[in-house]
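Homework help thread (please don't just give me the answer)

Our assignment gives two proteins as sequence + structure token strings and asks us to describe the second one. The first is just a warm-up. Here they are:
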Amino acid sequence: MDIYQIGLRPLLFNVLKTDAEWLHKQAIRSLNWLSQTNNVPAGLVNQSLQRSLCLRDRRLEQNLFGLNFPNPLGLAAGFDKDGVGAKIWSNFGFGFAELGTVTFHPQPGNPQPRLFRLPLDQAVLNRMGFNNRGAAAMAARLAGQKEFIHAIPIGINTGKSKVTPLEAAAEDYLNSFRLLKELGDYFVVNVSSPNTPGLRSLQDTAMLSSILDVLQKENNTYKPIFVKIAPDLEWEAIADIIGLAKTYQLAGIIATNTTIRRDGLKTQVIDQTAKPPQDEAGGISGAPLRDRSTEVIKFIWLQTQGQIPIIGVGGIFSAEDAWEKITAGASLIQVYTGWIYEGPMMVRQILTGLLSKLEQNKLNSITEAIGLKV
């Protein structure tokens, strides 16, 4: 255990009972300060972060869809919606980072409160609703940092604006992509958040096909494009999406987004509302999602014979969790909720654990572990 788990997290979660969204806003402000290039104190802090959090080892490196990943552990979308920390996520030890979800139109998101911790479940319930400043604002921010942001691959996760009708979704995604396509290393079509009305219906074959078609026609710079799917889909629907990934030559699939299931939760009452989680709308991330996301990863791997790269996300808190996702078929993995609960040292701890797993299994690189237990 480190100082975050022993002292800071109990203070914020239990003693002060700090509101989850307020705490997130303070973290974003800290990222903004750390990102100031001419700020000498910020520079010293960044150097300290690099020394304590980063771990480089060639056995963890991969080259996928034309990008070099120094390690397989990335930051999932949802934390840095506007790209505030784009140029410094590498200092936290991540091998890549995914910004967003960003929409073409700026939007405030859903009414507060909309972000809740479920501590007994090591989970978070959110119904943020794609709150962000819009694709144009992200493009302006990233364009001003272009020389700094590619220490690690940077992905951009795009969603449909709430004001855009479902029948115009393809154009909405296209507009965001046009503004950002020169600035991201890979792109994600998010059609699986439960917090925008009707969004998950875009996972339907016809609707998703129309989105992927216009994006790939616009994709003259050949940027890798992923689709992020829900864990609550039936196997047949996932198989249909795999078919579309092949048809439109997608770079891969991200499995999975948050779940709308509530079974098996231990947390009985949410502090901010004094209501049980079952009475609150939104998606759940963290440990309750772990097994289902791994099942989906394994299904995609088997259906594609490992030919379509998978980014696995959902319930990763430890090296054991990460190893489970990778050996089920994930080439890369992402964290968000686990990072909140475990703290900044989690990244280095997981990477150290993965190196131990490679040694135990007499493997020379993380690539050899992908799909090992399928």
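The one we have to describe:
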Amino acid sequence: MMKKKMALTSVILSANVYAFGDDVCYFPTFDQTVINCYQLPDPCLDDNPDNDTQCANEVLLDAMQAGENTDILRSSLHSDATYLLAQAVGFNKDQAFSIASYNQAMDHGVYTARNLLGEPLGGEYSDTANINGLNRGNFISGGNLLHFVTPANGAENGLEPDKNNPHEEPLLTHVRLWALSSYRQTIDQFCTGGITNLSAKGDYATGVGCYKTSLGHDADLAIAIRNLQGGSNQISSSTGTQIIQQGSPNNGLPKVYADDFDQHVGIDIAKEARIGVYLHVLQDRISHHICLDSSSLTGPGINGNFWLADLSNEQCAQDIHVLRHAYEQATDYDQLDTSDQTTLAALKATYRELQLFAQLNNLEAIVKNPEPLMKNIAETLKIVNAVARLESIAQISCDNQLNPYPGVIESCN
């Protein structure tokens, strides 16, 4: 939040904007290079509280307009920056691309790599498998919770979430263990909401098997989200094995569960795809932390039949949610309160986890001193012009003898 009291008003907007977090939008039908999906207006950068409402409303209208004009989007943090950092710790360009692509696919179901005119790259940069069960707008599968990663009974500081604490961060811990299970002799399971049977340590994130009631049934998993009127709407899902691909007769796709994730995405890239999924969950936990630190996952309820992810607090309102995404790129976020400086926090957390996975792969880091690199990326993400921002990230790769993100620049000079 800016260093002032925010007085935000509700604006009527479509439901898909609730999860709008991409900063780069393509408009290929107009033969136009990428532009910002939304941009923080000048009034947001001064200290006049009379501009607060205007700030929120303009960002929301920008997001709504972009959503009407294109559905080809990407996040420079989920994709470009993650691709760069994966190479920095030692992954080769193909492995790094798989990690970054499945990170980005979490928001859209399928990710297609494109050049700056929105043209698909194809070839070695083929589309990801469909993982729409993990999509940010999928409430039926519980996919939404992988983006709004609800802690148990709130958390102290989601800028640095405790990813090894299943009592406080059940879903984050659960998905992390699933990604690590490719390398360690641990339980290989991915459960909706991260909810398992009770473990020997007394948590519901690391037990054996996805949660079942005492009668052996899946339990109801309700998701309460804040509505435009300041109340909440409740959406029903259920515990059990996480759905990866939401199949239906309408889209002609079979339903795919997490047990078949590796075969679905391809055995040769499955380890990297899992890392990409987990990193997205981690990055979104940090990005949405002000909302999530005041949220809670509670259960099992009466007779063990009910769980609730409560995201109905005022910090999860749609207007402030979109505004905080606008703080993360294309603006000078050094002017924000520490709690809203999520970009550098996410980069640091991403690097540390990539470093762990690289070590498990017996890879040697290319960049020996990561701190200047991450600060450089964070500074680059402040660039307002979308093309210049992407090209500058690519140039950082070149400066560190790494491959630039595909489709941004031809090659390093």
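TA reply:
I won't write it for you, but here's a hint about the kind of observation we're looking for: Residues 15-399 form one domain.
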